[in-house]
Design brief:
heterotrimer, A alpha+beta (130), B alpha/beta (473), C alpha/beta (439), A: 130 residues, alpha+beta, OB fold (Dihydrolipoamide Acetyltransferase, E2P), six-stranded antiparallel beta sheet, globular, B: 473 residues, alpha/beta, Aspartate Aminotransferase, domain 2, Aspartate Aminotransferase, domain 1, 3 domains, seven-stranded mixed beta sheet, three-stranded antiparallel beta sheet, 12 strands
């Protein structure tokens, strides 16, 4: 059973967001996502400063056998990216909710957060094998 | 693992070049010349021993059974390679071929005719250098056909079981890919096809037989459905080996197709190529074929005057030496011989399927064509396809195609080809059963496999995380 | 002739195991109305008859003393190349999907990548494309992907066949191609400056170009870079890379071309060897196979195909290209050739240049006009009255004196494009000149 922290919000496409205050969040992919992908070898990071819409592709995560798009859980502006991942993509496997964070975002519309799943809902989503 | 660079030592290279008694030609200014090139300095003996050693680390069809599904790794007659080395062809320059290469053009002309006979198509172009290149060329023709008719069609239908080259070729021509699911028998889902068909559909690409090794029983119906909507029907001929001489794609309703000469018509695969992917078309598509086409008047010539052609798609005329091999093969087999190829290929595949189906899951367990797909479902101790594949290497077999087609989880796609004897098929089946036994009794054996190969399991993750793509001294 | 090992008895026994009465039952899914058509092919031949037949066809080809280049070069292929490449462990294997039993192919490709990087001055080279023309088309698609722009400028001095192939590929992908004119045998730099703007994805230059002339790649690269475009440097005569400054050192972003000169025969134009190399920042944009160095479970050096997620079998319609089968065996020939010839390649390139210069000066002395008076490598254009007629007469006397190029360059009528390699000696050239004096 994969790790699903209580304090985060989740998308159906297996991203998480840690809402630090109403207008700022940290985003990454879930433990379940990294397990499915197996050994991650490369992360294509977004450019700092770009505006994204909820559900839009922001990053690409690559394992030896698969490529997966990473989507934005909410709309907003990218304020910082985790440069460490360029040299150590394996952090996404070893610590997906900590050192393996992908980018930080200024949240444009806090009401979009209500559309996301909480830990219990996401756990059920994963259990249903989606 | 040694590379040639490890043998480098200044002064070893004694290679000699013919003397030239006119050292003029210092007219290139020094500023244009380089002085930074070092390749390698090794002896001829070093070269011979090194590459002989490297060859011994490889496994080819001549080493043993190579049941790599969809790749048709059959035995390739040695005479093919003898003719492909003849200086009469090898030394022929393409730019003077009409003047000095009438023999070469004669062969190409004959091969065009033979492929028309075998497939029923009206015209063939030999230019595409590989199967995927043939696909791309064909999709260009489809685009040009509708452009000329003034119809805007932007969708190509592709079954979910298709090779990755199909959607990739389609995308290179700016079409949208629409995936059509297969039904529970492995045929195209006709209801889903009906739903997807509209006036925006340019064509459907179908591998026949499909990548599950099945002949679609509704083939004529599918062709009718497409044609009634004005769409074209494209045959990916990757699996032609199953039906060559038994049925012609044109009779199945296909309008355009490619043939992998290196599969069905036996060119050794060369560690990745070269192959050749000639395309055939029905009459209405003939004007769009790439240039040049080989034609005959009092002499053979290259026909370039084709105003509707998509243009040129190869530096010259395609992979001539692969064509020459295919021509030789067809000349030796004749029409009965080709039909026998398909018959024996299909018999071998069904025999092996029958031997394995009581021990392994066969998701679409019906009479197959030249190949079939099993999977790793229910193998003891959670043993996976990859582990079975690696263990097969220890038993002296190449692995099947694994994890393809994508619609079968943990797929192993097995294509024995017609050139394996029943005894070899029995030995392969025995190895598979032994591996299954090992999975139950000693799964560790499979986890660490292969153990008898020149190197052990290779770390692909490291290679991708820290790419080293060239030798640095 | 047949290559089917199973006897009729084997087939009977196998059918009975399968549970059918004959092979024909296995084809039950094919509609009866279209099954077992009549196919008219010549009577099957034995191997011996087939060889006789092919020799008969082959003998209709003529072997001339050839002064023809134009994309294919008749360089000597050392015996070692044919010998080693004939080892069937190499040539009867396929794409090295199972690295544990493919280290031979993988190591050789790794060496090939290394040689190509050293020759081109690039960081990354893939494990081959079909030929120079399709390598160029793929390089341009790569530039379009990387820059997000879709206007392409190509010099008129790029091999006309390459431009034709590029034109077909760009038409298919809805991009625009414009041709930059030439002046005195070189890309017209002034015209280029007028044509280039910030919507251009890449500028393509060939050096040595179709006329054999050495282009100013550095200036063209500068011009491209000033407008946010990439510079693609292409070549048809790979041997020139040993003598001339590398495309990498001149500022090209992507290099591509034809590698046939390295250990591969003219072969009526195929198979050839497409080369594609680039800077490391394009690592995930370059199409085709890449082999990387890694280790096996016991820590030994080993090789493996890598970064495969760019490729069609994983990424399907979003792949960098549809290429699957490549020209592996031709790349192996090139690798063995480059290992054997090694640093002597530089001397070989010099001799090619010297012989071509000698030939050109002898013809000029005969009164032929050297059309472009810029430095060339081993090809050049000459003009003479009744060029075609002279050429035809020489064909009957055992010489192929270049090719006419007025189909693509109508202004260059009565011109011949000549190519000279080490397969032609000083003596051959002297004999040719003597012959020309008599006709």
């Amino acid at each position: 059973m994969s790790n699903i922290p209580e304090n985060l919000k989740y998308t159906k496409t297996h991203e998480w967001i840690d809402v630090q205050d109403t207008y700022a969040g940290v985003c990454g992919i879930t433990d379940h996502a990294q397990e499915m992908l197996t050994d991650i070898v490369f992360v294509e990071l977004p450019e700092v400063g770009i505006e994204v819409k909820a559900g839009e592709q922001v990053a690409v995560v690559e394992s030896v056998k698969a490529v997966s798009d990473v989507y934005a859980p909410v709309s907003g502006r990218i304020t910082e990216v985790n440069k460490l991942l360029e040299d150590k993509p394996e952090l996404l496997n070893s610590d997906p909710y900590g050192e393996g964070w992908i980018y930080k975002i200024d949240i444009k519309d806090k009401y979009e957060l209500d559309e996301l799943m909480d830990a219990a809902a996401y756990a059920e989503h994963v259990a249903q094998g989606e | 693992m040694q590379t040639i660079f490890l043998f480098h030592k200044k002064g070893k290279n004694k290679y000699s070049i013919p003397a030239c008694d006119s050292i003029q030609g210092d007219e290139i200014p020094r500023s244009m010349l380089r002085d930074d090139l070092t390749l390698v300095d090794v002896s001829e003996v070093d070269v011979v021993r090194h590459y002989r050693k490297l060859s011994s680390l490889n496994f080819g069809v001549d080493n043993g059974m190579y049941p790599l599904g969809s790749c048709t790794m059959k035995y390739n007659p040695k005479i093919n390679d003898v003719v492909a080395m003849l200086p009469q062809f090898a030394m022929q320059h393409p730019a003077t071929i009409e003047e000095t290469g009438q023999g070469a053009l004669h062969m190409m002309y004959q091969l065009q005719q033979m492929l028309c006979q075998i497939t029923g198509m009206h015209n063939f172009s030999l230019s595409p250098a590989a199967g995927a290149h043939g696909e791309l060329t064909s999709v260009m023709i489809i685009k040009k056909y509708f452009e000329t008719k003034g119809e805007k069609r932007n969708i190509l239908l592709i079954p979910d079981s298709a090779h990755g080259t199909n959607p990739a070729s389609v995308a290179m021509c700016g079409f949208e890919v629409k995936e059509i699911p297969s039904d529970s028998d492995g045929d195209v889902d006709l209801t889903k096809l009906e739903d997807a068909l509209n006036e925006h559909v340019a064509a459907m690409m179908l591998t026949s037989p499909n990548t599950l090794g099945l002949f679609d029983r509704n083939i004529l119906k599918i062709a009718d459905m497409l044609h009634s909507k004005g769409a074209l029907f494209y045959c990916d001929g990757a699996n032609l080996n199953a039906v060559v001489g038994k049925v012609r794609p044109v009779d199945m309703g296909f309008d355009i197709m490619h043939v992998n000469l290196h599969k069905t018509f036996s060119t050794p695969h060369g560690g990745g190529g070269p192959g050749a992917g000639p395309i055939g078309v029905v009459e209405k598509l003939a004007p769009f074929l790439p240039v040049p086409i080989i034609e005959k008047a009092d002499r053979y010539y290259l026909q370039y005057n084709r105003p509707l052609s998509i243009g040129r798609i190869h530096s010259f005329f395609g992979n001539f030496m692969v064509m020459l091999r295919a021509y030789t093969y067809i000349m030796m087999l004749g029409s009965d011989g080709l039909r026998n190829v398909a018959e024996h290929a299909v018999c071998n595949a069904n025999y092996l399927r029958t031997k394995l189906c009581n021990h392994f899951q066969v998701p679409y367990n019906r009479i197959c064509m030249h190949e079939f797909v099993i999977n790793d479902e229910g193998l003891p101790n959670g043993i996976t396809t990859n582990e079975v594949a690696k263990r097969l290497l220890d038993y002296g077999f190449h692995a099947p195609t694994v994890y393809f087609p994508l619609i079968v989880h943990g797929a192993m796609m097995i294509e024995p080809t017609e050139t394996e004897h029943r005894d070899t098929l029995d030995a392969f089946a025995d190895a598979m059963l032994t591996i299954k036994k090992e999975a139950a009794q000693n799964p560790a054996l499979l986890k660490k496999a292969p153990v008898t190969t020149p190197v052990r399991k290779v770390d692909a993750v490291l290679a991708a995380r820290k790419p080293v793509l060239k030798w640095d001294d | 002739m047949s290559f089917l090992p199973n006897s009729d008895d084997d087939i009977l026994a196998m059918c009975s195991e399968i549970g059918v009465s004959s092979i024909e039952d296995l084809f039950c899914d094919i509609p009866a109305s279209i099954k077992n058509p009549t196919i008219q092919l010549p009577q099957a031949l034995s191997e011996q008859e087939a060889l006789t037949h092919i020799l008969h066809i082959g003998n209709a080809n003529e072997q001339l003393c050839s002064l023809v280049g134009a994309g294919i070069y008749n360089h000597y292929v050392p015996a070692v190349v044919d010998h080693l490449v004939s080892r069937s462990e190499f040539y009867t294997a396929y794409t090295p999907y199972q690295p544990e039993i493919s280290q031979g192919t993988l190591a050789a490709i790794f060496e090939f990548q290394t040689f190509i990087c050293r020759l081109t001055g690039m960081d990354i080279a893939n494990a081959s494309m079909y030929d120079g023309a399709t390598a160029l088309a793929e390089a341009v698609l790569m530039a379009i992907r990387s820059t997000g722009k879709n206007r392409v400028l190509c010099s008129a001095t790029v091999h006309p066949h390459y431009r034709d192939v590029l034109s077909a590929y760009l038409w298919a992908s809805d991009a625009q191609l414009a041709i930059v004119p030439y002046k005195q045998g070189l890309t017209d730099y002034e015209q280029l400056s007028h044509m280039i703007d910030d919507n251009v994805a890449c500028v393509i230059v060939q050096s040595p170009n179709y006329f054999g002339a050495v282009e100013d790649v550095a200036s063209i690269a500068d011009s491209a870079h000033n407008h946010g475009a990439l510079c693609i440097a292409t070549f048809t005569e790979a041997l020139s890379l040993a003598l001339l400054k590398s495309p990498g050192s001149l500022g090209a972003d992507i290099t591509c071309g034809e590698g046939q000169s390295f250990g591969n025969y003219p072969a009526c134009g195929g198979p050839l060897l497409g080369i594609l190399a680039c800077r490391s920042k394009f690592m995930r944009t370059i199409p085709g196979r890449l082999v990387g160095k890694t280790v096996d479970e016991e820590g030994r050096d080993a090789f493996v195909m890598t970064l495969q997620t760019r490729e069609q079998h994983i990424r399907r319609q979003r792949a960098t290209s549809n290429i699957c089968t490549n020209e592996g065996l031709c790349a192996l020939r090139a690798t063995i050739y480059l290992s054997l010839v090694g640093n002597k390649l530089i001397e070989l390139a010099r001799i090619n240049h010297a012989l071509a210069s000698y030939c050109c000066s002898r013809l000029v002395a005969l009164g032929y006009e050297r059309v472009f008076t810029v430095p060339f490598f081993n090809e050049f254009v000459i003009r003479v009255d009744n060029a075609k007629e002279i050429r035809n007469r020489l064909l009957d006397n055992g010489y192929a004196l270049g090719i006419s190029i007025d189909t693509y360059y109508p202004e260059l009528n009565d011109c011949l494009l000549l190519g000279v390699t080490e397969s032609v000696s000083n003596n051959d050239i002297d004999n040719l000149v003597e012959l020309l004096q008599t006709i």
